[in-house]
Amino acid sequence: MYTIHCFRCEKDTSAESIVEIIQEHTDVAGRYLCSHCGSSHTSVRPVEKTSKANKEEVQKRE
Ligand SMILES: [Zn+2]
């Protein structure tokens, strides 16, 4: 899972894969587009399917 986070409307657009984002959520210049407002002022982030990494981080602190 990936999300395109929009800095203009603060909403996230989710996609199953980076391929889906490139095929369906980019403009002619290759910029990632928000599907809510159409802004290209966005950031793409991978989304972890489990919270395992977070749990490990917590355990190190304890
Ligand atoms: Zn937006």
Automatic annotation (TrEMBL):
Q: Where is this region: Disordered?
A: 38-62
- Composition bias, Basic and acidic residues: 46-62
Q: What is this protein called?
A: Uncharacterized protein
